[in-house]
Amino acid sequence: MDRWRPLPRALLPCLIVSVAATLLVGANAVSATELGIEGTRFTIDKAPTFLYGISYYGALGADDEVIRADLDHMQQARFNWIRVWATWAAYENEISAVDAEGKAREPYFGRLRDLIADCDRRGMVVDVTLARGNGQKGSPNLWGLEPHKAAVKTLLEGLREYRNWYLDLANERNIRDNRFTSSADLRVLRGLAKSIDPARLITASHGGDIDDEQLRKYLQFSEVDFISPHRPRNAASPAQTADRTRDYLRRMGELGRVIPVHYQEPFRRDYGRRQPEADDFVTDLKGALAGGAAGWCLHNGANRHNDDGRPRRCSTTWMAPNAPRSSE
Q: Fewer CB within 10 Å: C terminus or N terminus of the chain?
């Protein structure tokens, strides 16, 4: 057997440079912020944390300067997470990070990556949401399981190094229009996601309160990491949130698996005819906290009663190129 021989001295500087470069690349690939779950709570860098967020759906249409300023303002208001869609189009503007076949779509996939990286440096969490689209106002479509699977694969492989984001497989997947994503499809999509990135947190948001049968499926069949009910948007809803949250936790206990309850999309202005007041938002947030929820979002968006959607607020303020910044 050949004996080990020392490396020639002349090659040592090259080896040192090579090892240093490898270590630097590895260091740059390490996420600064790690999202996790402990019992019924989220954690950021292993510390239990309530996710207090704001909807930022059209972020990929904004330039870097605007995004930095927006994130600065969000952090000043103590928001620690944002919700962004990977499939978003409205008002003749298409800014989806993936196309109808689930493939990366530039420059928007790169913008999504940059946004997540900026939030990672800031200690912020990002909700990345997919949707099959309802066919309204030019919304993109991932119709069918195969393109949906491709989109999941694109996101998880392309954004794998960052640990500060989670994936909503299908926005309001239970709604019986083109958005509908069956529990069987969710199970396949979740299985694919975990095969690519086992530690990535996965959910699938639900329009309305979740009944017993659907809750059982989320826990035991689709096996999401947390539930994301979009509570009803009526006048009575804010005062009910605390009890609804306790009820979810109780029912999950009876089913033998208790996971976080995350309110990623509550009511908002200009959705129905009734305009919620500031006190409604405060009541809803306090109810989420009191009931034991893991997170809550200051949801906002376009005016559904105007054809042009104005005021579009931060969900769609930047859908139009060179649009002036909205203060609404």
A: N
Cis check for the bond before 107: say yes or no (omega within 30 of 0).
yes
In angstroms, the CA 259 to CA 37 distance is 9
Could you tell me if 117 and 26 are in contact, meaning their C-beta atoms sit under 8 angstroms apart? no
State yes or no: pLDDT of 203 exceeds 90. Answer: yes
**Is 49:42 a contact under the CB 8 Å cutoff?**
yes
pTM over 0.70: yes
For residues 216 and 252, give the distance between their C-alpha atoms in angstroms, rounded to a whole number: 8
Cα gap 58→95, rounded to integer Å: 8
Asked whether the beta carbons of 268 and 297 are under 8 A apart, the reply is no
Is the sign of the CA dihedral 231, 214, 134, 186 positive or negative? positive
